[in-house]
Amino acid sequence: MPATHDERSGDPAAETISYLGPAGTFTEAALRVAPQARGHHWKPVNNVGEALADVTAGRSRAAMIAIENSIEGGVTASQDALAAIPGLRIEGEFVVPIRFSLAVRPGTMLVDVRTIAAHPVAYGQCRRWLGANVPGHTHLPAASNIASAAALFPDDGDERAPADAAITPPTIRDYVDVEVIADGLEDNSTARTRFALVGMRRTVPPRTGADKTSLIVELPDERPGALMDMLEQFATRGVNLSMIASRPIPERPGSYRFVMDLDGHVDDARVADALRGLRRFSPHVIFLGSYPRADGAPVDVSSAYTDAHYAEADAWFRGLVDRE
Q1: b or e along 79-97 (b: 16 or more beta carbons within 10 Å of the residue's beta carbon)?
Q2: Which helix (H) or strand (E) holds 262?
Q3: Site annotated as Essential for prephenate dehydratase activity: where (predicted)?
Q4: 157 is in which domain, residue-wise?
Q5: CA distance 113 to 139
Q6: Which of 46, 162, 191, 280 has the smallest count of CB within 10 Å of its CB?
């Protein structure tokens, strides 16, 4: 369980981590596996923007946000926020398996379900089950996988609840008085969501050999081959891109920025060289940090691109000309 911070012990913001609440969300599950979150106060908020605003305003030391789902892809709200808010750094990534259940008010049967409350990302991952078991239903969007359960009960003054059922985590009964009438709603049993702990600290975790670096890059101009030129900054240095996604730049219609993860650490010679080349090429590069991979898998590096080979090449180059 998260620790309760005693404000008498120091600055409360230094001991607070914001996350998409309420308690019981998958984001809270990510906090439970994050060593950096142990002993801190966990502050539930309503959305990613509010969580990151806590960080930039100094109300929280860091925020846990979802950045990618293995089925639905990148979480665009998080990607856009990381591009728009200066100074943010990713301190670590954490992967949470995604499972969904169908919750109802006590006594409700599956045949009674007409409207289902669900977070849009959760809803998108349960389409097959819903189509087979609740055809013709209506989707009511919810702010989170826990907030969806609130739609099962009438608001003050209302006679009817907004929804007959809700897509929730399997642990929903720990937080809300509901019944679960179906488990395993997810279309893909291997579904995972990747979360990032984001703060403002500029220090980078030491490299482990199993690291990842995250960037956001804009092309210098819109022309044939511009994207290939950007990608060559990595390919020619033996740096693998494990993820790349495009996002529109709101203030420049028709232009895009690229959110990317690459295998390696900024202290790796090949990664540092690629970043220098990228900055010469692009007018706007956002370095989001280097941090250990969640899966702990060592990065496979070709022998031509190891630090030792970079050092040997530098020594060879310095020896080409005698300097007095």
Answers
A1: bbbbbebeebbbbbbbbbe
A2: strand 256-263
A3: 193
A4: 101-183
A5: 11
A6: 280
pTM of the model: 0.84
Q: What is the DSSP letter of 295?
A: T
**Which tens digits make up the pLDDT trace of 6-27?**
333 456 777 899 999 888 999 9
Q: With the C-alpha atoms ordered 201, 40, 5, 150, is the resulting torsion angle positive or negative?
A: positive
Task: Report the pLDDT value the prediction gives residue 5, as an integer from 0 to 100.
Answer: 37
Give the DSSP letter of residue 176: S
DSSP-assigned beta bridge partners for residue 19: 44, 64
How many residues make up the chain in this entry?
324
Contact 43, 19 (CB under 8 A): yes
DSSP state of 12: G
- Residue 232 included in any domain: yes
| Average pLDDT of span 112-140 | 94
Write out pLDDT tens, residues 180-198. Answer: 999 999 999 898 999 999 9
Residues 138 and 154 in one domain: yes
Structure tokens at 241: 């891109």
Residues 6+ apart with CB under 8 A from 221: none
Specify if 240 maps to a domain: yes
Question: Is the Cβ–Cβ distance between 72 and 125 less than 8 Å?
Answer: yes
Long-range contacts of 155-160 (CB under 8 A, 24+ apart): none
Distance from CA of residue 319 to its chain's centroid?
46
Residue 263 belongs to some domain of the structure: yes
Single out the residue of 214, 225, 309, 318 nearest to residue 263, CA to CA: 214
Encode pLDDT of 55-94 as tens digits: 999 999 999 999 998 877 888 889 999 999 999 999 999 9
> Is the pLDDT reported for residue 120 higher than 50?
yes
> Do 226 and 131 contact (CB within 8 A), yes or no?
no
